[in-house]
Amino acid sequence: MTERIRRIVADSSADTLTMEGADFAAAPLKIVTEQREYVDDGALDVSAMAAELAAYKGRSGTACPSVGDWLEAFGEAEEVFCLTITGELSGSYNAAVIAARDYEERHPHRRVFVMDTRSTGPHMRLILEHIRHCLAQGMSFEQVRDSATAYGARTGLLFVLESMRNLANNGRVSPLAAKAAGLLGIRAVGHAKEGNLAMLDKCRGQEKTRESVLRHLTALGYEGGAVRISHVDNPAAAEALRQALIARYPAAEVQVYGARGLCSFYAERGGLLIGFEK
Ligand code: X90
User: Fold this and answer.
1) Is 96 close to ligand 1, i.e. is its CB under 6 Å away?
2) Ligand 1 atom with minimal separation from the 262 CA
């Protein structure tokens, strides 16, 4: 008897290209300017893109994976566990749902669970790791689906942004909310709330920002569980936050890594995204 293929899939906003110990595929979003298109896959040079965008003065935006992109990521798997960036801000979830319906219709014995994470980045990474754990336990399709849904609600996303220009220019936040992060040296702290950005604080200086992040993490229910921090060309701030977390919660399991294309475009230079367990 051959093993069922059980695959984990996410759009590229999860900043994940491969997953050790899992059959994994990513569906790329795209960053689009009037001059060219950047596909957010393993071939993308994120820092070269950032440098080109910094020198570019025209309009820029993004595009979610197409139904075809999702189908390609599903491959030939019998069971697919598919995570998308928040459906409040992107068409990625809708495209994935259409792809899933099509996939199940054409292959009646295959099943796809599409989860709108109502979040992005390192919060999605945590849910991906949770699903990998569930699969390693040999849980059924329904058990994995229910466990991932419950875990999604027990986890959150906090962000620290030095600029929200790309978010505002693309209608993902109000110009008023974006203004806070537009001032030199001011960092906007916020979190994912009901699939949208919600602002929490404005901070001046690295240390004040870190204190604010720790305070808000605790207020949002963090008690020393797993944390994933992605940064946009800002390893120093990410590492300082990791140290501060471990100082307060010695058992905390914290990992730091660089954001890929989609999150780099919107979180912008210096940005931090923090996925955490409640
Ligand atoms: O479909 C598309 O073109 C993608 C649009 C994505 C827009 C939002 C991206 C946000 C990236 C910024 C801070 C965290 C936001 C939390 C959201 C709930 C990261």
Assistant:
1) no
2) 11
CB of 92 within 6 A of ligand 1: the answer is yes
Q: 141 C-alpha to center of ligand 1: Å?
A: 28
Residue bearing the CA closest to ligand 1, atom 14:
159
pTM check: above 0.85: yes
pLDDT digit of tens for each residue in the chain (278 aa)? 567 899 999 999 999 999 999 999 999 999 999 999 999 999 999 999 999 999 999 999 999 999 999 999 999 999 999 999 999 999 999 999 999 999 999 999 999 999 999 999 999 999 999 999 999 999 999 999 999 999 999 999 999 999 999 999 999 998 888 887 777 789 999 999 999 999 999 999 999 999 999 999 999 999 999 999 999 999 999 999 999 999 999 999 999 999 999 999 999 999 999 999 99
Strand 60-63 versus strand 272-277 pairing type: unpaired
Ligand 1 binding pocket includes 159 (Cβ within 6 Å):
yes
What are 263's two structure tokens? 């999150």
